[in-house]
UniProtKB/TrEMBL annotation:
It is an enzyme of class 2 (transferase). It is a single-pass type II membrane protein. Residues 66-79 have a biased composition (Basic and acidic residues). This is Hexosyltransferase. Belongs to the chondroitin N-acetylgalactosaminyltransferase family. The gene is Chpf2. Its EC number is 2.4.1.-. Its main location: Golgi. One of its GO terms (molecular function) is N-acetylgalactosaminyl-proteoglycan 3-beta-glucuronosyltransferase activity. Residues 1-22 form the signal peptide.
Length: 767
């Protein structure tokens, strides 16, 4: 029998192993590189410790570099390590309390704290001027005085130490700042009330300084008869202390008070810092200069144009209140001119760069540097223009076609006309001088991408240099751009507050109570949400007389009993009221007296489908003594008109499709009982027992006219109401009945579907 040759066997073997060759080569290459890397690492570890006396490998093998380097070495490696949690069984377990704000837990500090030293003679004059000019520009500012029982001017936070000695006032102020704000701020600025400080410039200064060193920054002055090298910061021009310096200084304040004698408090503080911390006052740090200007007597700020004055962060002395306001006006104008100059320079740069873009100069927007107008993708996204004249507005909040121009709108129109004339005169003077005769047409709209846009048709009188006049019509376009967005400070609220639902029920609501109770049980009781329910049964006089024989709400009470059996820990109380006209205010008067003042009410309607998402927003949007929440629910249309008896196409991504937000309904509201009681007390004093007035009011009207709180009115996608045929009580006031009818009629269907229904009806009638 013929034997296969060795060459054929080798070829067959290679053919079988060919698919695995890349894997074998990869494994071989990986192992080789790993061995080479281990060898290089061993050599590096040997060479990294010169002078240790170990010329070769130690017998126990190479040790990690981190173990053989000296502590504090720059090459020390910080390796993460797992610290096992071991609970001591002998100690009681305590729940970990989280901080209220995340920045507290992470150790973040606010940037700047300002302390203003004042006295009895200047508290009601210069201190008030400081408060009106620059105080609102600083994040936190307090006034310190040595007066006892001082009367605090309006809008100021005053700390009275009870001793008017200057050194004692400085000592107590430093001690107070360290005790109350030492762990909250990075920088502390101390000034006198006869100092004008440029708040924005000082905030910009601290933003450019590092907080990792001890800083004593101000106008450096020499001690009288002291060391030539030592300097203290002049108190009249203000000075800046870092947090680290304040923490070190605090432990020496008592020694400084007992050992250092001085007449001036700023010298005393400077000597204390120098003697115990070895830090002298400086006027320059990290490339930043603390520039000051000494104001001469009878000087006029309006004529100060020198660079030293314009660059000053602090001006001293300010002898009277009028000078303080004049300085503030002058520096505000300087900052405004700088801003305009910077805007012009940026606009020139934008024009130069736009020509290099693919769009070229055609891509340049107006005004230069402002976002382009919003481009709608469909007719539903078109932003409409509002037409106005100097007397009337033709797009009114209440939906009426014409209303009087008043309040903020009137001030806005007047301001924009004056600004248009100012811009025209600045462009054409001295050749032409324009004066307004009449506003012919005015248009405005709010573009969320850029701001408020205006188009004005002005009838102007143009006067030449020779005195000739001529009437002409000129169209002007203006934009009031959106400025810097500011976060409005709001009180702290949580989602743990208990919500008390209040549900008024009439005889007409009986068909919908079962669905409400089922949704309440499923979304709150089953999920153990912190919410309770109170029912208010509204009997008319006829039903109230025969309640002992035939109770119209007996079925509802039976449903409540079933719920209480199913959920043993739940109690659903009810209140019975007899009235012909169910006034929302009168009902809340009864409910309010039966609950504590800190109760958070959610006034609901029988068509409301309560869910956890909305209840959380009710908790977050309602703030005691600050804000009440009136959500705008989503009302679904009549399915008979929308689908003509066909099944609606369900869509999980567009669940708010076949309906609208009912802005005519104020039935739902979230508010605290204390806020309602306060507003109700003011209302009672105003109407003087005229109870018939209450029948024409809702809870919304009470808060709007008598509370002074923020009324937060917003669309609420979490409140969806199914369509139901509702009837409006004809005994309601004219306004409330009209509002109820509008809500009912607009909830039938959209305009297009109503038009289609009318068209089909006409077609059917014609045939």
């Amino acid at each position: 029998r013929a034997q296969p040759c060795p060459t054929m066997r080798l070829a067959t073997l290679l053919a079988a192993l060919r698919p695995a060759l890349p894997l074998l080569l990869g494994l071989s290459l990986g192992c080789s590189l790993s061995l080479l890397r281990a060898a290089w690492g061993r050599v590096d570890s040997q060479d990294g410790c010169p002078g240790t006396g170990d010329e070769g490998l130690p017998s126990s093998g190479a040790q990690p570099v981190a173990e053989r380097e000296a502590p504090g070495s720059e090459r020390e490696e910080f390796r993460p390590r797992i610290v096992p949690y071991a609970r001591d069984p002998n100690k009681p377990h305590r729940k970990v309390l989280r901080t209220r704000y995340i920045q507290t837990e992470l150790g973040f500090h606010e940037r700047l704290f300002v302390a203003v030293l004042t006295s009895k003679a200047t508290l009601n004059t210069l201190a008030v001027a400081v408060n009106k000019t620059v105080a609102h520009h600083f994040p936190r500012l307090l006034y310190f005085t040595g007066l006892r029982n001082a009367k605090v001017p309006h809008g100021m936070v005053l700390v009275a130490h009870g001793d008017e000695r200057p050194i004692w006032l400085m000592y107590e102020t430093m001690h107070y700042i360290h005790q109350h704000f030492g762990s909250d701020y990075d920088w502390f600025y101390v000034m006198q009330d006869d100092t004008y400080a440029q708040a924005e410039q000082i905030k910009a200064l601290v933003m450019h300084l590092s907080i990792n060193q001890d800083v004593y920054l101000g106008r450096a002055e020499e001690f009288i008869g002291g060391d030539e090298q030592a300097r203290y910061c002049h108190g009249g021009f203000g000075y800046l202390l870092s947090r680290s310096l304040l923490l070190k200084l605090h432990q020496h304040l008592d020694s400084c008070r007992n050992e250092i004698l001085s007449v001036r408090p700023d010298e005393w503080l400077g000597r204390c810092i120098i003697d115990f911390l070895g830090i002298t006052c400086i006027s320059q740090l990290q490339g930043q200069h603390y520039r000051t200007y000494e104001m001469a007597q009878n000087a006029k700020p309006e004529k100060k144009d020198e660079e030293e004055f314009q660059a000053a962060l602090a001006v001293h002395p300010v002898s009277d209140v009028t000078l303080m306001y004049r300085l503030h006006k002058r520096f505000s104008r300087i900052q405004l001119d700088r801003a305009y100059q910077e805007i012009q320079e940026l606009q020139v740069q934008i024009r130069n760069l736009t020509s290099l873009t693919p769009a070229g100069e055609a891509g340049l927007t107006w005004p230069v540097g402002i976002n382009a107008p919003f481009l709608p993708k469909s007719r539903f996204e078109v932003i409409s223009w509002d037409y106005f004249t100097e007397q009337h507005l033709f797009s009114c909040p209440d939906g009426s076609p014409k209303c009087e121009l008043s309040g903020a709108s009137k001030a806005d129109v007047s301001d924009i006309i004056e600004l248009a004339l100012e811009q025209l005169n600045s462009r054409y003077q001295p050749l032409l001088r324009f004066s307004k005769q009449q506003l012919l047409n005015g248009y405005r709209r709010f573009d969320p991408t850029r701001g408020m846009e205006y188009t004005l048709d002005l009838l102007l009188e143009a006067a030449t240099q020779k005195g000739h006049t001529h009437l002409l019509v000129k169209r002007v376009s203006l934009v009031r751009p959106l400025s810097k967005v500011e976060i409005i400070p709001m009180p702290y609220v949580t989602e743990a507050t208990r919500v008390q639902l209040v549900l008024p029920l009439t005889v007409q609501d009986l068909d919908f109570v079962a669905n409400f109770l089922d949704m309440f049980a499923m979304n709150t009781l089953d999920t153990h949400d912190n919410a309770l329910l109170t029912l208010v049964f509204i009997y008319d006089p006829y039903d109230a007389q025969r309640v002992s024989k035939v109770d119209v709400f007996a079925g509802v009470k039976a449903m409540v009993g079933e719920l209480e059996k199913r959920y043993a820990e739940v109690k659903i109380p009810w209140i019975s009221v007899k009235t012909e006209v169910p006034s929302q205010v009168k009902l809340m008067d009864i409910v309010s007296k039966k609950h504590p003042v800190d109760t958070l009410f959610f006034l609901a309607s029988v068509w409301t489908e309560v869910n956890m998402e909305f209840l959380n927003r009710c908790r977050m949007n309602t703030i005691s003594n600050w804000q009440v929440f009136f959500p705008v629910h989503f009302q679904e249309f009549n399915p008979a008109l929308m689908y003509h008896g066909e099944q609606a196409a369900s869509s999980s991504t567009d669940f708010l499709r076949d309906g609208h937000f009912d802005r005519h309904s104020f039935a739902e509201a979230c508010f605290y009982n204390s806020d309602y009681m306060t507003a109700r007390t003011k209302l009672a004093a105003d109407i003087l027992d005229q109870d018939e007035v209450l029948e024409s009011m809702e809870v919304f009207d009470v808060f709007l006219h008598y509370s002074g709180l923020h009324l937060f009115r917003a669309v609420e996608p979490g409140l969806v109401q199914k369509y139901a045929l509702r009837s409006c009580n004809p005994r309601l006031s004219e306004e409330l009945y009209h509002r109820c009818m509008l809500s009912t009629l607009e909830g039938l269907a959209s305009r297009s579907h109503l038009a289609m229904a009318l068209f089909e009806q006409e077609q059917a009638n014609s045939t």
